[in-house]
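JOB MANIFEST
job_type = single_chain_structure
chain_count = 1
residues = 107
[input]
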Amino acid sequence: MQYRASVGLDDVFLKAKELSHCVKGHFWLTLLFMFYLEAIYLPALQRQVRLWQINYFAGLWFTQMSLYSFYFPLLIRLANDVETNLGPLFFMESSETVESNHTTIIS
């Protein structure tokens, strides 16, 4: 009993029991529910939504950072490499392919 009184739980319980006769009826229950929503539920919900938004934007920023830092330079390097190194100049379509001046002649 001394531990609960020192923490204050017993005092809160006694005060709530003493004032419970005042909170009877539909109006007071609605008022109590609205207080619960305003004081406890909505701040917790706002914290969770804020945390979700921060995580969402952090993921979006990380994706943009990795795209601009790694993927786009590799893509540009690949495009430049395709322009300078065109690859093979002839294609083997049949067994009688002859290469002449960067063109293919098929007999």
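[summary]
The beta strands are 97-100, 103-106.
The two ends are 106 Å apart (CA to CA).
exit_status = 0
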